[in-house]
Input
Amino acid sequence: MADYKAPLRDMRFVLNEVFDVASLWAQLPALADVVDADTADAILEEAGKVTARTLAPLNRSGDEEECQWKDGVVSTPAGFPEAYKVYGEGGWVGVGGDPAYGGMGMPKVLGAQVEEMLNAANLSFGLYPMLTAGACLSIHAHASEELKQTYLPNMYSGVWAGSMCLTEPHAGTDLGIIRTKAEPQADGSYKVSGTKIFITGGEHDLTENIIHLVLAKLPDAPAGSKGISLFLVPKFMVNADGSLGERNAVACGSIEHKMGIKASATCVMNFDGAVGYMVGEANNGLAAMFTMMNYERLGVGIQGLAAGERSYQNAVEYARERIQSRAPSGPVAKDKAADPIIVHPDVRRMLLTMKAFNEGGRAFSTYVATQLDIAKFSEDAEACKRGEQLVALLTPVAKAFLTDLGLETTVHGQQIFGGHGFIREWGQEQLVRDVRITQIYEGTNGIQALDLMGRKVVGNGGTFYKLFSNEIRAYVEAADAALGEFTNPLKAALDNLDGLTEWVLGQAKQNPNEIGAASVEYLQVFGYTAYAYMWARMAEVALAKQADDEFYVSKLGTARFYFARLLPRIHSLSASVRAGSESLYLLDAAQF
Amino acid sequence: MPDYKAPLRDMRFLMDEVFDYPATYAAIGAVDATPDLVGAILEEGAKFCEQVLAPLNRSGDEEGAVWKDGEVTTPKGFKEAFAQYVEGGWNGLASDPAYGGQGLPSSLAMAIGEMVAAANTSWGMYPGLTHGAMSAIHAHGSEEQKQTYLTKLTEGRWTGTMCLTEPHCGTDLGIIKTRAVPQADGSYAVSGTKIFISAGEHDMSENIVHLVLAKLPDAPAGTKGISLFIVPKFNVGADGEVAERNGVSCGSIEHKMGIKASATCVMNFDSAKGFLIGELNKGLNCMFTMMNHARLGTGMQGLCNGEASYQGALRYANDRLQMRSLTGPKAPDKPADPIIVHPDVRRMLLTMKSLNEGCRALGYFTAQLLDIAHRSPDEEKREEAEGLLAFLTPICKAFMTEAGLEATSLGMQVFGGHGYIREWGMEQLMRDARIAPIYEGTNGIQALDLLGRKVLGSQGKLLRGFSKRVHKLCEANAEHGKFKAQVAQLAKLNQQWGEMVQQIGMAAMKNPDEVGAASVDFLMFSGYVVLAHFWLQMALVAEQKLAEGSSEKAFYESKLMTCEFYFKRILPRTAAHQLALAAGSDCMMQMTPEHFAV
Output
């Protein structure tokens, strides 16, 4: 297995050369003071070091050792507690946190790069800080000042960790039917009781306290999703002076045995009259979750990219070293018994597919992150609104498309290794197992597709969609003719997506099943088209600089591969969308 | 975990109604294989697989095969299950009666094999490898070798392996290093290290017969210098029973992603006593004679995992309540509707169903070809079957295993978070399915074999052998009241298929990289067209049965509807493959190796 090397060159290319994020920061007062190009560069450099040196070496061993549960106590694999300490002390958990409570205050677009490195180095480990950062977002956005003062600083600094407790045995996608109850107490607190499952980081030995954010219902709450409230439930009570008090009535009943992310503790959490504090308003708990959901979902998409990047690094090294059979056009390494397998067209097809998806995904997730930053930090109401709408539109695409491609990419990376790809010690199969969860959790990819088509496209009559489509069209129209080899197919893809969107808007009026029937393939057509936009923008920069550096030649070659061999997938997917829902409903349940 | 229920109805549909196995069995002289006997055998096989093998699948995965000091212990129950399998007569079902087999058609053995691998893929590897070794000995061994080894293998007292791969070579066997030095007594001393040897060592049988590829000291370089040897774990005494241990041992076993109960061994040969089988330097040819069979078997594993996953997903989709249907509540008395009401869940289930049943048709058609090719008295029929087999085998192996991976991944997805948890069994199916696109020649190698050796190598003749059948089917049904649209869709793709080959052929004359650049997309395109052909064929039969007033209305209607789904929602995938391969090799070959990591 190759050592992980953070792809800093490509990150800088995307941040500085394609999107020029430093200019954006300079325009946003909240960011102008905390970050500029040099600071950003130093942060990337340091994140590259800590992830490669401290976290990556624990990835294979973590998978083999797994988390262990005994009598309610969870032990993480060897090295994890020490690594979490290093990571927390470096300020990385709070990289996007509010400086008023000890966070670093960095824009999401930088946080996104840190998340990629974190997850590429060690996806299982990465979940602990990511869940903590997610809990912090909710607390920061909705909790009282007192709760913020009490909990945020220790969470940002890695002294405490967080968890999000949503799912119950009978309710995952459908949170409206949860059963966990919260009884109001005389002192203004609540007693929370119920069972939560699939709680990542619910119990572990990394930190001295764990802060759970729990969805529960008040005794008199309305039925369904409008009767859910959010509560902060600490594992250990916190005294007035900030020291830890007694154990709260929350315990880990067991952990799951999973396909992958085995070093991440996935816990059954039992709340038995545990003391909790309401975060945000009563019955508004789901709304409080939604504020962090865009961040989390982009983060999960980035996990897909991260696993793909790690797999690619291993696969390239292997393809250049492994010798097997001769090149079709004649021997290349005549002094050896066979040629390195990178000479074979099909090995190149797999590598280039991985490379094009990874780099396209890096650009796209960075683009979405800049929109999150604009939405959060811009003082121009128009720009803010536009940012919010683009975020709403693109987040489900980022979550589902990047994770779908993460699976495809890691499967290719495994295939390049032949039989060795199936053997655990080589590391490639772990990446497939680890990435497979990202299509499922944080809202399955089917749910993302419904969100995109139902709420984000049809729900506003295509207004959000127009924003994105118009931006691409303006770009295509303004582009130099020399860029035609990229912008012409981009324009054709956009025309196709426009047409498909029109079609979907029309169909949805007639039959609500059409939304669910077309949604997954529609999301994928959307994704490939968005990546085409990214690849055109990257090619534009690379075309101008190709004489300077082989990096740009490689970028152009990959862009050409994307347009020639991957973008055509939209034709199949579009035909499938247009086939409609009818053929899905011919069979009754018994005929399956 | 999903209970396995053998899909006997669908198997019989193909064997009796679509492909008319009874006629073939009569024609090849398999007089014993009457429909009644076949029915009884399938029923019994289903019972064994459902009741004995399936319950060992999850526990086998958790326990894994365990290596200690050169000994390998299989998971609890495996050994006993093998004994039952042997006692039931399953091992020699299709073997030569001259050496103790029952001589039934190999297509029937394949149907049993489907149930075995669907119930427990890992367990199925042990008899599977044994059957491979038996075929090789039967085809190439001397009479003495057959009497010594084949009888015991058929009886199930001994098992077999195939030892090909070495640490530095898998695909490229021309560079193997294992040596065989001739001895005065006519035997050979075999030395070298083999890896990835399935069932190389285990506790299920009293002896293990290894078939080993090795080179003589003076052998020509490359693939033309490889010979095949029989190397038993225990030497065989004059009485035909096991004697002293031979110089072969298991150095370790691999820790794998899946098929964990199948022992994947590093085998060390240290001047082990071996016996040449077949001609000197013709070892690869000996392997090739059994390759069609083995590759169809691997393709079937894809289907098996997909089938098991579908059964689990379907049950869950009917039980799990979550959200309301978009068109209004379907289970108003419950807190939510079963998830099978949701269109996207149906999309996943129907994708699995249409791929599984389409692949089963391809597999059963190909198995019938194997019977004809091996046993038909009619030379012309044998030749035709050989041609179709050459063409379809790489498609079976690669397309069916790709479909298996997709289906098992979808099956997990239907389960949501539970799909990722081991105790539910769905993720194991995906892990087990993942090996099939890799071993027995990676799918990339299958694609090269299909496009390079088979299609272009025959100047398109092998493709025409199949596409003319498609043409005939389309022509005969061009004006069919119900399937007109599907027929037109298939006819158009059939034409594109031929044109595509011409274009690639032209391009390949100028640039040999064009073949490898197009091959995987060509294979996938071919797979979708081949499945469309079989779906149409199945739909025509179903339509006819309904017209005849069959009492199994639901079964046949389900076939028609699944066919419609396949043509509308799956077959369009051909467009992306066609466009991708039409883009040619330039965009793949221009970058230097350094450009991949700058």
